[in-house]
Amino acid sequence: MTIQPNGHTASREERNKANLAPFANPAVPGYPTFLTAQPQPVGSLLPAEKFPQNANPPKAFEPITIRGVTFPHRLWVSPMCQYSSDNGHATDHHFVHIGAMAQRGWQGITVEATAYVPEGRITPSDAGIWDDSHIAPLKRQVDFVHAHKGTIGIQLAHAGRKASTLEPWVQVQHEEAGWTGGHVTDDEHGGWWKDVAAASDLSYDNEKYPHPKESSLEYIESLKVAFRAAIERCKKIGFDFIEIHGAHGYYLHNFVDPVSNVRTDQYGGNLENRLRLPLEMAKIARENWDKPLFYRLSASDWLDDVVGPEKGHPGEKEEWSWWGIEQSTILTQKLADIGVDLIDVSSGGNDARQQIKVGPSYQVPFAKHIKEHVKNIIVGAVGIITDPAQANDIIENGEADVVYFARQVLRDIDFPLQAAETLGAAVSPIVQFERAWSRMVVKRDHLKAEAHHEARSEVEGEEGKEGKRQEEKKKN
Ligand SMILES: Cc1cc2nc3c(=O)[nH]c(=O)nc-3n(C[C@H](O)[C@H](O)[C@H](O)COP(=O)(O)O)c2cc1C
C-alpha cells in the first residue's frame, strides 16, 4: 500500500480545526508488498524504563549476540522437515509455516534439513538448495522474517544411508493399510535407491532401509563443491546463520560413528579419521561464511545397555565401539577451535538398537556435559522442552545457553509470548496482535518471583510417552 497525497495541503488553522494528525501506518522499506513495520523484534523485551519487570529479566529473554547477529531471546526453533517441497523448492506451506513463527515471536528459526545435493534428501519431498532455482522461495521466507526483525537460518543436510525413504505419513498410512515391506522409495515415486551414499555399505536396517554404497573419495570431493555452492546460495538468500546437520544417523553421523563407518582409508578406522569429514565441512563453511555457524550432533547412540561402554576396546586401533558423549565432546572441541559458534546437542538415530531414555529434558545432560568441558562454544539444548520455567531453568542453571523447540512450536505457536507472560516479562507482540496481549504488556513493579525462580517444572507424563512413540517411529 502506498498512501498517495491527495494534493491538498491543509493550513495550520484547518489542521487544528479538523483535528488532523500527520501520521501514516509505517511500511517495511523495500518489502515487495505493504507490510507494517514493527517497532522492535517480535518477542523481544520491552524497555525496562516503561516496564520495570524487565529490569532483571528471565535469562530465556536475554538477547545473545553471535558474530554481530543479535538474537533477541533464547527460545529458538529446531529444524523440522515438512516433507512438502516441490523438487526441493519451498512452497506456500513453508511460507505460512515459517511466517507464522516470525509473527508469533520465535527467534533463531532454523529452516528444516535442506539437502545440498538431490540424493541428500531423506524423501523425494524434502527441501533442497542444490540449484539456484531454490533461492527465490527461501528468500521470500527470509525476507518476511527479517521484515519482522526476526532471525532465521538453515540446516544444511545430507541424509546419508537414510536417503530415498518414504515421507513419514506415507509410510504410516500404508502400514496401517497392511503394508509390511520396506521404507525405500522406488524409481516410479521419485526415489534414487541405487544411489544412496554413506560412509560404508552398511544399512541402517537391512529389512526396511536402503542398502547404501560406500562413498568414493571422488564423491566426497564432489560433496564439498556442492556444499560450498549451497553456502553461496545462503548468502544470496540472506540467512542469519547456517547449521550443519551432523546428527540423527545422516551422512556426517555415518562418518563419525564406528557402528556405521568401517572404512579403511583416511575417513575411517580411528577417531581422528572418522572426525575428518565433519571437520573438513565445518572448515569449508567457516572459510566461506562469516555469520554464525552452528553444528547439530547426536551426542549418543544410546547403546550402553545393548553393547556396553562407548570406549569398548581401550588400546586397540579402533578403541570405540559406538558413538557417545566422550567422542561428541572431543568433536565439539575441534569444531569450536575451527570457529563453529554453537553446538546444538541432540541424540540418537544411527543405530536401530538404540534404547533412548525419553522424558522431559532427556538430552539436556549431554548439553550440560559439553558445556562443562568445552569452553569456547555456545551450547543449545533440545528435546521435550515444553514449559517456560523448564526452558528458563536450563539457561539460568548454566546447562545450556539457548533452548530449541520442535513439536511445541507445532502445538503452541504462541509459546514465546505465553512464556514471557508466565515468567513475568513483557515482550513485544506484532502491533497487529497487541490487543490480544494486553494482559502481558502491563507495567509491573516487580517480577512474578515464583514464576521466575521456581524449580524445574513438572511436565506431564503423557509428554514423555508421546516422545517415546515418536522416537520409535522415526528419528529425524
Ligand atoms: C516434524 C519433525 C521434523 C523434524 N525434522 C528435523 C530436521 O529437519 N532436522 C533435525 O535435525 N531434526 C529434526 N527433527 C527433530 C527436532 O528438531 C527435535 O530435535 C526433536 O523433535 C526433539 O525436540 P522436541 O521434543 O522439542 O520436539 C524433527 C522433528 C519433528 C517433530
UniProtKB/TrEMBL annotation:
Question: What InterPro entries does the entry give?
Answer: Aldolase_TIM, OxRdtase_FMN_N, YqjM-like
Q: Which SUPFAM superfamilies match?
A: FMN-linked oxidoreductases
Cofactor(s) recorded for this entry are: FMN
Query: What keyword terms does UniProt attach to this protein?
Result: Flavoprotein, FMN, NADP, Oxidoreductase
Annotated spans, Disordered: 448-476
Q: Name one GO molecular function term.
A: NADP binding
Where are the bilayer-spanning segments?
A: none
NADH:flavin oxidoreductase/NADH oxidase N-terminal domain residues: 61-422
Gene3D superfamilies in UniProt: Aldolase class I
Kindly provide the name given to this protein in its UniProt entry. NADH:flavin oxidoreductase/NADH oxidase N-terminal domain-containing protein
